[in-house]
Every structure is written in C-alpha cells, then in structure tokens.
Amino acid sequence: MPNLPRTSDENRVVLLLDDNFYYSSMRYTYFLLAKRYGLSFLSVACRCPLSVCLSRNSHRSKSVPDHIIIQMEQKIEWPNPQINRWEKHTVMLDYSSLLTPSHLQMILESITVAMQEPFSYAEETTRLERSDADREINAQSLIHGLDAVLRSTVGQMMAANDSEWKAKHSGLMSRLKSVVMNKMRAKIMKDHPKQSPEEYKEQTVSLF
After folding, report:
1. Is 50 within 8 Å of 69 (Cβ atoms)?
2. d(CA 91, CA 107)
3. CB 150 within 8 A of CB 199
4. Domain check: are 115 and 144 in the same one?
5. Around 203, how many Cα atoms within 13 Å sit in the side-chain half-sphere?
6. Disulfide engineering: 103 pairs with which of 83, 99, 197, 208, CB 3.0-4.6 Å?
7. Domain for residue 195, yes or no?
8. Half-sphere exposure of 173 (CA within 13 A, CB side)
9. Which has the closest alpha carbon to 108: 200, 48, 42?
10. Same structural domain for residues 102 and 143?
11. Number of domains into which the chain is organized
12. Which residues have C-beta within 8 Å of that of residue 85, sequence separation ≥ 6?
C-alpha cells in the first residue's frame, strides 16, 4: 500500500480537522483516508448540555439560530469505540465548562498513543483471519452439539417403539436426520452464528 512520507519522531505532523462530523459516516470517511496511507486516526469529541450550548450561542457576536443547534443535538452520533472498532482512539471531553490545561494534556497524550498505533494492513489481516477461525470453531462446535441432539431424539423415538416400527422407520429417521443437519449446517454457516445454541437446538428439533 502507498505510504505518505514519514518525518522523524521529533517532527511528526498532526493534521487537525475541525468540524461537527455529527454522523459517524462523516468521520469514517477520514478514517478510511488514514487507513489508506497507514496513518493513525483519533477523534476528539466535546460534549456539552444543550442548555449550555444555547446559552453560549446567545452571547456570540454571530449566533446560530437555536433550531439549528437543537437539530444538531438530535442528529449527532457520538463516537462509540465499543461498536465502531475504528474509533478506538477517542477522547470524550466534558465541555460544560471551559477547557483546562489538563484537558489539553489528555488530548496530547491520546495523540501520542494513537501515533504509536497507526493502521496496519498486516495486523488487520491477522485479526480478520483469527476472527474467521474463531467463528469456524464455534460453528463446528455448535453443529456437533446439534448432531448430538438429533441422535438423542432419534434414539428416544426408536426406544419408544417396537421392533417392527424400528425396522420400518430406521432408514427414514436416518435420512431425515441428514436432511435436518444439512439445513441447520447451512443456516449456521450463513448466520456466523447469530442465535444462541438453545435457539438453534429448538429449531433443529422442530424441523425434525
């Protein structure tokens, strides 16, 4: 991948984008740009109660209409590192009062940490491969568990009937078990899996 020219550690460059970026997609656009060049990405979000925002706005020489601020407060999608992994470097500041030197120090320290963790395609590839492997292991474990459930179900049905019934239906039970397992296997591999093991077990038994 192409890389921007890197300066020495003593002269690293910080590109500051000052905007509302009220939708996460707006921030994500710039994360992708940083990702493209193997650079670091950090968000600094200043949170402030709506009432304080409106009060401060009323004292500005060029104020913004109140309804614009209210709409912005309703629309804004705050950074969420728990959901968006790409926002793992995020500083959330309480801007109810003026920023202090400690706030600025927090930002500088976070920038330093982010700079030490630029985006790496090699690391991302490894992470994705590990995630895929983990999903495969979980899926196979779940499939094995469902197979055991069906074997138990078939065993109970066979035990509850006489030898004549067993001779007549044993082949059908085996084929039906294979059909159900194939359907559930396909569903699990497609889902990755999304439901709990108990929910999959209930579906398996109901199909059978």
Report:
1. yes
2. 7
3. no
4. no
5. 17
6. 99
7. yes
8. 18
9. 42
10. no
11. 2
12. none
* Residue where a domain terminates, one of 66, 88, 119: 119
Q: Are 178 and 162 in contact (CB under 8 A)?
A: no
Q: What is the mean pLDDT of each run of 10 residues along the chain (208 residues)?
A: 45 85 91 87 93 93 92 92 90 87 88 84 64 70 81 81 78 81 79 71 76
User: Cα(145)–Cα(132) distance, rounded to whole angstroms?
Assistant: 20
pLDDT, position 148: 83
> What's the CA gap between 153 and 12, in Å, rounded?
66
Helical ranges in the chain per DSSP H: 24-36, 50-58, 66-75, 101-115, 121-159, 163-191, 197-207
How many other CB atoms are there within 10 angstroms of residue 41's CB atom?
Answer: 21
What integer pLDDT is reported at residue 5 of this predicted model? 40
Place of tokens 């309804």: 67
Q: Is residue 48 part of a domain?
A: yes
Cβ atoms 161, 168 nearer than 8 A: no
Structure tokens at 72: 């912005």
Indicate the residue among 119, 144, 168 that finishes a domain.
Answer: 119
Do residues 34 and 92 share a domain?
A: yes
Instruction: Answer yes or no: do 110 and 131 share one domain.
Output: no
Maximal C-alpha separation, the chain:
94
Which residue, chain included where needed, has tokens 């959901």? 83
132 located within any domain: yes
User: Do residues 32 and 115 both lie within one domain?
Assistant: yes
